[in-house]
Here is the input.
Amino acid sequence: AHVGRQVLKSLPDEANHLARVASMGALPGVLIFALRGDGDAIGAESLRAEILGALRSGLSDTNGGVRTAAAQALGALALVWLNAPAPAAGGLAPATAVLGLLSGVFQDAAADAR
Here is the structure.
């Protein structure tokens, strides 16, 4: 979970779109590794939410390559979110949030994002 947070921490300030693309591409592996267990189940679950937020940001990036990488990462993690437990009270289930993000990708005007 620590490595994932380091990747996420660098995203907001990164001006280079290629670095943002690479970061988006790393997120699926980072989350899957964290969820497989390093003994920090709570950290992995909160990382899941943070990564979802980063992917949401990536899907609205001004660069088509970043949007494409975010869409690919979201697709790579679809089963992780579709099998996630529903939140205790209020809020959207992770699967509902992911499906909402994916539907936005289909509206993207950039050919490489579609």
